[in-house]
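We emphasize that the prediction below concerns an isolated chain of 538 residues; any contacts that depend on oligomerization or on bound cofactors are therefore not represented. The input was used exactly as deposited, without trimming of termini.
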Amino acid sequence: MGKHQHRDRIARLVSWGHWFTFWNIILCLLIGLLYVETALPAETWPAAGYLFISWLGHFAFLPFVIFIVLLFPFCILIPFSRVLRGYAALIATVGVFALLFDVIFFRSYGFHLNTYSLAQLASDAENLFAGGSFLLLALIIFAFLFIFGSQLVLANLSWKRLESLQKARYSKPVIAVFIMSFLASHSTHIWADAVLYTPITQQDDLFPLSYPTTAKTLMARHGWITVERYQSQRDRLTGDETLTVRYPQAPLLCARESQPGQTVIIAFDQISPELRIRINQQIPELTEFTGMHLGHRDQESALFSLLYGIPDLYKESLFDQALKPAYWRVLADYNTPFIAQHSEHYARATFPEFLHDHVQGNGMLNQGVDGVVLRLVSEKDADRVIEELLSLREQRDIRILVTGLVNSHVQPLELNVAAPDRVQVPMWTFGIPIAQRSLTHLDDIMPTVLSFYMSCTDEFAAFTTGRNLLHRERVYPRAQSIRPFIYLFEAHQLTILDQNGELQLYNERGELVPGGVPATPVFIQALRDLQRFGNQVE
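Result of the prediction step, given as a token string:
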């Protein structure tokens, strides 16, 4: 073979490789639409434009890189079309198959493939039906062979029609669009990262193998900023995991209940073992909850969870916006009072400042009112409150709920101790028939109490993540945010997520399971439910 013939063959193979890659770019773009469909709705035009150009640029870039790294060198080293067509079809099959597998996993679980993902998918399939792992393996093999056959057809057609394809005029403009989209998407992300424009930066984890250029790395590389200065600016703007709240999520469509009566909620700042014994002995009419009732580590956050019925993730944002509890307006429309009081020694500062006008000072407990009375009590005022409770039990149509806000055993140096018994508090009820269950939280109190005064179309889901304790239901799984930890309670295990993203899994005996992880769908869904009232702050 002459030198010119060898050069022509290589040029022809390279041209064929370009066209084969081009058709796989189109295929990857179609698969990429499945990722775009899962994206949060674009809040602004820049966010929508960035999503479009990053989709074009990213899914054109992936096949092109594979061509440059794995196909182009072989066009020069092994210039035999039949060998290269089979090899290219195999490489493309692996890439497309991995992309399809990833998009299926991402749409189901919310994150991209890794070694843990494969094991988790097999485990979930096995749990779903017997022999699931074998059927999954058979399906994978069939899908792989089907894609490989399709790629062989595509490779052969590209080779046979190469002359007509080379005459096409649309290829260069389309390739230019792909290149410009890739460059524009990274340039836009640099700007968004520099100004902390969340509608764009929140898309960072949408596409697989996506590592957009950031302002921090680019500017620091050229000496325009220091990493410490950038991080300081970001912390000032975003705070520590602050979320912006959508509260309530939807208008409250509720109907008034007849004969609502009075409900008194007594919330102690803490309940010592001695006070717990006194309450059980002096007021035997109160029924103590025998399961695990979770309070909080911080008194202000505990009061927030009790009053609003949503996770403490939203406290700062909601307080900054001075949003009052959503159900107050509904109760006002029904002329049903919601009265908040505090005892003499209770730390009134834990009540948000914009609600101070709604809190009555120290005084006698309001009785005989068809409404809700929330009495915030210091343990120092326990004697007086016990006397009030003794008089309340004689009143007709009265409901009483007594709880603590913070575990009395938690010391300032133990705030980062993850054990759930460090946030467990007692709870008693009178006239409130709690259904059998083993786990409750401060979030559950308001939905339970309000069920005596109103019924809503969405079971209060528009303004609370809590559950009505009067209803019998499957309690698990249950996720709770008690900063700095997130707890995922399941029937036979507990998972704790700390602020560094590390997981710890405990079995039903409370023993740490090394390397243990929760079922991914359950964990992802629990986190989504915790965050359904908001997004990261802009």
